Amino acid sequence: RPSPEEALQWRDSLEKLLQNTYGLASFSSFLRSEFSEENIEFWEACEDYKRTKSPVKMAEKAKKIYEEFIQMEAPKEVNIDHFTKAVTMKNLVEPSATSFDMAQKRIFALMEKDSLPRFVRSEFYQELIK
Question: Residue limits of the RGS domain (predicted)?
Fold first, then answer.
């Protein structure tokens, strides 16, 4: 469990929150409680994807991420604009470590602007900083 001081830093930095194992778990739980966990799941899938070294595994993961989060009517479709979706699809012709970067940045920004402030106001977060 983080110290109240550590947890306080998350208010101003989604990056710090996501780098902390407890912070990531707490934020994920919070988003699940709001039925909006697809964004954090997509972000985590992208992080895992970027750590993949094998081109074969990378292609498999890229296909899975696309089918789960990007394509129309995907089971956990994330909210990205048409331009970002088009760029991402173009990048997937030859998957590389940066194929999902633009989409991941958009989702990060969305979580930072929208989900983080709600998390910070939540009872759960308020308990952490006491």
Answer: 13-129
